[in-house]
């Protein structure tokens, strides 16, 4: 079974726009930026360009703090727009004229909310691990599903720690095994000249 994972990025409050109609305003930015190393994880993670190719984004919803009772927008209602481009996954969210919408918009405008998180699952074979300069790096080449983006006050990684820890431990175990095998194998010099 594929575990659901969450990742958080900074939300740029300069992307606030005045609203029209049922919306009090818009926020926009990038939920995912391709080929950019993560921070605040026990390892480095890079989501590679093309990782969302073929992923159905038509049911993605925008939430506040990953709470399904706090819906801010949806792709299928037209209040959330997602576009994959050369930089990553760009979003534009029409903030609803509701108590929650006004509160979230004001908190972003005041700089109190600046986190954005996204929920996804990795496709089978869609990740690889490498040691780069002594640090473990996880490359995500294929995302299976993208379920939501959330405006968050405190990005939470507890929901992903089981999957990440298991995957990281497996990578470490494989690296140690390879090093041990290489250390006991005899070395031969062959003259091919």
From TrEMBL:
Record's keyword terms, sorted: Hydrolase, Protease, Viral release from host cell
Boundaries of every Prohead serine protease domain copy: 16-173
Identification of the protein by name: Prohead serine protease domain-containing protein
Matching Pfam families: Peptidase_S78
Superkingdom of the organism of origin: Bacteria
NCBIfam families on file: proheadase_HK97
GO biological process terms on file: proteolysis
InterPro entries: Peptidase_S78_dom, Prohead_protease
Single GO MF descriptor: peptidase activity
């Amino acid at each position: 079974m594929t575990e659901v994972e969450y990742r958080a990025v900074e939300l740029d409050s300069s992307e606030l726009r005045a609203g029209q109609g049922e919306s009090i305003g818009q926020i926009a930015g990038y939920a995912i930026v391709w080929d950019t190393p993560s921070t605040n994880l026990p390892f480095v993670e890079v989501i590679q360009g093309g990782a969302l190719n073929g992923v159905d984004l038509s049911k993605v919803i925008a939430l506040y703090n990953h709470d399904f009772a706090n819906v801010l927008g949806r792709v299928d209602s037209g209040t959330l727009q997602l576009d994959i481009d050369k930089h990553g996954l760009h979003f534009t969210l029409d903030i609803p004229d509701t108590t929650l919408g006004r509160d979230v918009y004001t908190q972003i405008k005041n700089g109190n909310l600046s986190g954005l998180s996204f929920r996804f699952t990795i496709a089978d074979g869609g990740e690889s691990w490498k040691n780069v300069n002594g640090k473990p790096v996880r490359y995500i080449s294929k995302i299976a599903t993208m379920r939501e983006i959330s405006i968050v006050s405190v990005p939470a990684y507890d929901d992903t720690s089981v999957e990440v820890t298991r995957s990281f431990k497996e990578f470490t175990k494989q690296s140690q095994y390879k090093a041990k095998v290489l250390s006991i194998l005899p070395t031969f010099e062959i003259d091919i000249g």
